[in-house]
Structures are given as structure tokens and as C-alpha cells.
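Milestone 3.1: sequence recovery, worked example.
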């Protein structure tokens, strides 16, 4: 799957939320009037794009409609796509121009910092860069061990101290080691913190100061990791963290599991902080560089227009052989034919005595007593024939049941019945 397809598949829920609302709106209005724009504004707000950003989008669309006189739904959607792409601006990649370059990763607990570091380390390592990770989250239990597992998977080095040690000292040692070993990138993990934890926010300022002192002249990226599932709360987190650190970029995680991916637009519009990386899955290679153009295109694309729509019911796994299926079908048909023939043969044998008896009765003249006796015999033989037919049908049903997936169960049941009947006799 290509990079665009990963993005398109990753924001599927966001696309369904935004475009589902826009399509319903376009189908319910016969003309583009002020009422339409009010409904569109409400729809965008409900999709976590934000109040001010939704108002700005509607104002820009209103101006375009007035200027061009567009009326068709396709033209409206195309104009919306252009407006959103323009709001997201130009793409900004990570600045790793110096050696070493420092990337400091911050965010609240549970946002996905450690996972992001592991994926980013693997991504940079695959690009041929030598990476050292600083395990500066010394407060959370097992955080160092978790980061050790990720660095082992990514194939990069780690600098760590004992649990509870000073985080700033870990960052200091990591930057020193990177200079000595000729590493290209130092990625610093930090403890999760909230804006109301003053001691942790002061600790973050201390780590930032150490980075600038030890890596003087080096490029320093401060990435804020935000959980996309938190919606507009992520925007508030970005505002508060920007007061304690000079945030250079956003990493938006868990984008594939939420319909609130529209916060990307409001983060960039309201804060002016670019989104540089997005997490679109749980695999090691599911951390992607953010592309504003691809994001806007993927928001307005149909599911059938990209390769990411790979889970269609008509698709057949490669390991299934059509020849085997045809053989199984042929065998089933032949088995059913044999069972039908056997049933018909048994029925024919059961019907034969009745025909002979009826012929004898019709051709012979006998006293009334003998007729009654013959009628009784005829009834008994008829009931015997009916029982034979029922037994044949029951046998046919059992054969059919023993052919299925749970055939062994019916075989055991049949065996138990036979054994019980023998004992009663």
C-alpha cells in the first residue's frame, strides 16, 4: 500500500464523518443560500473542526460561490477541498540538517509518546540515520523497559538510567554520547504531564534548557504528541504546552481510530503549529510524514478510488485454490446423486408388494371374511412399506448430516442410537 493509500485508509472514519454530513446537506438543499451555509457550519463544528475554523471555511466558500456562481454538488466539494488545503498551508518536514539533531517528544500521559518514538526511530534508521534514544521518562513505572523493547525492534541504541533518576541528566548523557559516537539524531522521551502539574512543567523547561546548552548550534525539534481521539481538547493541550516549550511541530496519533481528524485543520489554523507526523496504524511503519495535499485529497475521495479499499467481499485470498473448490462441489453433487438413487431404489422395492396385493384383490373373488382378512394383511404390509420409506429417508438425512463440518457429531449420535436399540432388543 502506497503512502497516499495509507493516509486515505487511516482517515477513513474522519472522511465518512465529514463527507457524510456534507453529502447529506447537498442532497437536502436545492439551492445554495444562507440557510445552506448555516447548516454547513454546524456540520463542520460537529466534525471537530472547531468553531472559528468552521466559520472561516464557510466564509471562504460563501465568497467563492458568490464569485463563480457554482451550484452543483461536485463544484461545492471541490471548492471545499481547495479551501481546506489552503488553510493547512505548505508541508513542513522535520529539520534534521545538523549532526547531531535533537528531537524532544512531549505530551500528556497516554497520548502515544513512547510508541511514536519507537516508530520514528525505525523510520529514521530505515533512512540510514544513526539514532540514539534518551529514556528520560524516569517517573512512569516500566516506561524505560517499554522503550527498550521499542528500540530493540527498531534496531537503535538507547541511553538510560535507573528508574526515578533525574530526566535532565539522561538527556545530557544522551547528547554527549551522540557527539562521541557520531550519531545523526537524538530522540528524547519525556514524562507525560498535564498543564496543572507545575513541577513537571518546570522539569520540561529544565530539559529544554539542557538540550540547548549541550546541543548548541544543532537543530532542535520539540514535537508535541496529541491523541486524535480527544478532539478539541487536543487543541487546548497544544495551547498550554506551547507556554512551557517552543513547540515546532505536532504528531497526531491514533488517527485511524477516530472520526475527529478534523482537528488537524483547527490546530494549524488557530495555533499556527504545523502537523509534521501522523499515526495511521499500530505497525512499525504506520507513522507517516503529514502531507496537506494528500490529507485534503483523501478527505474528499471515494472509497472505490484508492487501493486502500482492499477488504471487498468479492476479493479472494491468494491461498484459496479454485480447482479444489470445483472438485469439492463435484464430489458433493455425485454424493447427492448416489443418495437419491439409493432412496428411489428402496422406495421402489417398498412399493412392489402393494401393487401385487392390489392386483390379487381385484382379480380374485372371495368371501367377505377372506376379504376382511386380506384387507388387514394389506394394511399391515402398507404400514411396513411406509416404515421402510421413513427409515430410508431417515438414513438419507443422516448421510447428509454426516457430510458437514460437524459430521463427526452426528456419526456419534447415530452410533449411540444403534447401540441403545440393540440393548433394548
Amino acid at each position: 500500500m502506497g503512502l497516499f493509500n495509507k493516509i486515505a485508509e487511516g482517515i477513513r472514519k474522519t472522511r465518512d464523518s465529514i463527507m457524510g454530513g456534507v453529502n447529506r446537506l447537498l442532497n437536502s438543499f436545492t439551492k445554495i443560500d444562507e440557510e445552506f451555509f448555516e447548516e454547513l457550519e454546524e456540520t463542520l463544528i460537529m466534525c471537530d473542526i472547531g468553531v472559528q475554523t468552521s466559520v472561516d471555511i464557510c466564509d471562504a466558500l460563501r465568497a467563492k460561490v458568490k464569485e463563480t456562481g457554482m451550484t452543483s454538488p461536485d463544484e461545492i466539494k471541490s471548492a471545499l477541498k481547495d479551501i481546506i488545503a489552503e488553510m493547512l498551508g505548505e508541508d513542513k518536514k522535520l529539520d534534521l540538517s545538523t549532526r547531531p539533531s535533537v528531537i524532544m517528544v512531549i505530551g500528556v500521559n497516554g497520548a502515544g509518546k513512547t510508541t511514536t518514538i519507537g516508530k520514528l526511530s525505525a523510520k529514521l534508521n530505515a533512512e540510514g540515520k544513526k539514532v540514539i534514544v534518551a529514556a528520560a521518562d524516569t517517573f512512569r513505572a516500566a516506561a524505560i523497559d517499554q522503550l527498550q523493547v521499542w528500540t530493540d525492534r527498531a534496531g537503535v541504541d538507547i541511553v538510560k538510567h535507573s528508574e526515578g533518576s533525574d530526566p535532565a541528566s539522561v538527556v545530557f548523557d544522551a547528547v554527549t554520547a551522540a557527539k562521541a559516537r557520531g550519531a545523526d539524531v537524538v530522540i528524547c522521551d519525556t514524562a507525560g504531564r498535564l498543564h496543572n502539574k507545575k513541577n513537571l512543567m518546570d522539569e520540561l523547561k529544565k530539559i529544554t534548557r539542557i538540550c540547548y546548552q549541550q546541543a548548541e548550534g544543532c537543530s532542535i525539534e520539540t514535537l508535541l504528541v496529541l491523541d486524535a481521539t480527544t478532539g478539541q481538547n487536543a487543541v487546548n493541550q497544544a495551547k498550554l504546552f506551547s507556554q512551557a516549550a517552543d513547540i515546532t511541530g505536532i504528531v497526531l496519533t491514533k488517527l485511524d481510530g477516530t472520526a475527529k481528524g478534523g482537528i488537524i485543520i483547527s490546530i494549524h489554523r488557530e495555533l499556527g503549529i504545523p502537523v509534521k507526523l501522523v499515526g495511521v496504524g499500530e505497525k512499525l511503519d504506520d507513522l507517516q510524514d503529514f502531507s496537506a495535499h494528500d490529507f485534503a485529497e483523501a478527505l474528499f475521495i471515494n472509497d472505490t478510488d484508492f487501493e486502500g479499499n482492499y477488504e471487498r467481499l468479492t476479493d479472494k485470498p491468494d491461498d484459496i485454490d479454485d480447482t479444489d473448490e470445483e472438485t469439492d462441489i463435484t464430489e458433493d453433487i455425485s454424493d447427492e446423486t448416489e443418495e437419491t438413487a439409493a432412496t428411489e431404489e428402496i422406495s421402489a422395492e417398498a412399493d412392489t408388494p402393494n401393487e401385487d396385493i392390489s392386483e390379487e384383490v381385484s382379480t380374485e373373488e372371495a368371501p367377505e371374511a377372506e376379504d376382511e382378512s386380506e384387507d388387514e394383511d394389506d394394511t399391515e404390509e402398507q404400514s411396513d412399506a411406509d416404515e421402510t420409506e421413513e427409515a430410508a429417508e431417515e438414513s438419507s438425512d443422516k448421510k447428509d448430516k454426516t457430510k458437514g463440518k460437524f459430521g463427526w457429531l452426528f456419526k456419534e449420535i447415530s452410533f449411540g442410537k444403534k447401540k441403545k436399540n440393540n440393548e433394548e432388543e
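The first strand starts at residue 101 and ends at 106. Residues 304-330, 346-374 have pLDDT under 50 and may be disordered.
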